[in-house]
Amino acid sequence: MTKAIITVVGRDTVGIIARVCTHLANDHINILDISQTIVQGYFNMMMIVDMDSCSKTFGSVADELAHLGDEIGVQVKCQLEDIFDKMHRI
User: Fold this and answer.
1) Which of 15, 39, 46, 82 has the most CB atoms at less than 10 Å from its CB?
2) CB neighbour list of residue 77: distance below 8 Å, 6 or more residues apart
């Protein structure tokens, strides 16, 4: 299974979760786990997703999510789980 970590951070506004999750669903990316919180008006969400059914390259997905973040006023980052794990072991 190809897993990725997606983080979304920015000022809270209506529809952030809906827009990100709809985008993922349209690309056949399954959300395995999701956590979100709002602290003093700032939205923070972390998702672990399965990208096996997605026909796009990882780079394309990451770029599209970053562009979506720009559209809705948040920062969206996407990293492969393997790289994320190795970075945090150092």
Assistant:
1) 46
2) 6, 7, 62, 65, 66
